[in-house]
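Structural prep section.
Before we set up the soaks we want a predicted structure of the protein with flavin-adenine dinucleotide in place, mainly to decide which crystallisation condition to try first. Input record follows.
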Amino acid sequence: YHQIKLILGDQLNAQHSWFKETDKNCLYVIAELHQEMDYVKHHVQKVCAFFHAMQSFATALNKAGHDCLHLTLDDTQDFRSLPALVKSLVEKYDASKFSYQLPDEYRLRNQLSSLLLNNVEVEVFSTEHFYLEDAELGDYFTQDKHNRMESFYRKMRKRFSILMSDDKPQGGQWNYDQKNRNKLKSADLEDIPEPLLFANDMSSILKRLERHQVTTFGQAASSLLWPTSRQQSRELLNHFCQYCLPRFGEFQDAMTFKSDHKWSLYHSRLSFALNAKMLSPQEVISKAVDAYNQSQSVDIAQVEGFVRQILGWREFVRGIYWTHPNYGHNNFFKAQRDLPHYFWTGDTRMRCLSEAIKQSLDYAYAHHIQRLMITGNFCMLTEIDPDQVDDWYLGIYVDAIEWVEMPNTRGMSQFADGGIIATKPYAASANYVHKMSDYCSDCYYSHQDKTSQRACPLNSLYWRFIDVHRDKLGNNQRMGMIYNVWDKKSNDEKEQILNKAAGVLRNIDAL
Ligand code: FAD
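Run finished without errors. Recording the tokens verbatim:
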């Protein structure tokens, strides 16, 4: 082979220009790597999903007439790093050219850009996946605090003419939040659609992981429910547009423990298919917009809510990631506590936390509000070391890749970036959890109490957080009202609340 082209596990883009024509002088390589198994401890379903999707992609390429080499952990066990493997392949096949697509992560980008190959031409390609090319990110993002998702999103809507009539947003508004974000009432529970699940056979991958003593966690499943091919990804997208999109926005933030489909609700569960690039964001958005145009059952508030997540948030966090290379060192609140043991088991009496964690262990999935307002909020209020929080999120979710995980976790959920992404911390007491879920109705703790023995820990923790970080948050205009409420409390009440919070923190492992 004259040329070797590397395809990373999250570069499974069958529409890429690389594959327009077949070239018998070119060998594609997709490899399971040992170095990807231990940079963080992963959920077993995450590893299985990537490995299976890689295998399906290699098979599809070979079927389409390309030459694609699929290497398993067995084949790559002598190579502790990606550069070592590439060097050996280039030598073995006597290739004069090596090509790769720009990785979406600093770690891999650095590894590949510092690769030294003698007398071999190296060419780097775009992944042709995102709306914004890498070189454009600097036009949209600056290294200061003035990157705001809403203005970025509006620019994107205009530039790519999505849900626009002339220069105006379709429906007349940019944002339909007030129509969205409802709680699920009892009558709504029966309508929750059954999720479309796949049954991909994992037996040989699981054996391989065991053979190579790969340490994983979470519920292993011999048949994996996540989509691992382009066809399955498209089926999931169609299923979403038909059954979930009509009420996506409405119940986007809702949580319940009272339904068999409590983990999936109206969410698309497309994040793995998107992040592995089996689906493009353009394709997902255009399907959803078509569904809106063609079906009476999808209104503008639902489709706008969905488009905002992909055209807005997804592209936005990527821009923040690449324009803030030191993001991973931010620790605004100097948080240092260890992650409590129940993050690995779900064994806590706090119903909200236990639901979100157990579900994550079972499915390698939780939806946005569980990640942000349940586990995330808890970690921020209890000052867990953001490195540990990042590692937990990066390991546990099937869709977790650093470029999207880190700004969401460190920034959105922990405010460890001091406000690069969010204008104020997403801090909440039990009041919010009670408003958006039915968790509190069946909890050991009382969501109404602040200081009693069974008071929900979130209540005292919330006020402690407000009190302790006055120096950092007191001047934030969006926090003014909260500080007014706190300041109006009597000294006695404040003291009781702070004492209670101190007790909660002392006993954090026993909650
Ligand atoms: P839906 O609710 O159906 O949303 C549709 C799509 O919009 C998603 O598939 C996703 O591609 C995109 N999207 C929605 N919200 C965001 C967001 N905040 N940032 C980027 N894309 C978004 N998403 C990941 O893909 N990988 C992660 O590792 C990840 N970590 C997160 C960690 C925390 C603490 C938080 C608060 C959010 C995180 N998110 C992450 C964003 C979001 O929670 C997931 O994308 C979403 O829950 C995936 O489920 P879904 O496909 O059913 O999403």
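Observations: The two ends are 60 Å apart (CA to CA).
Flagged for discussion at group meeting.
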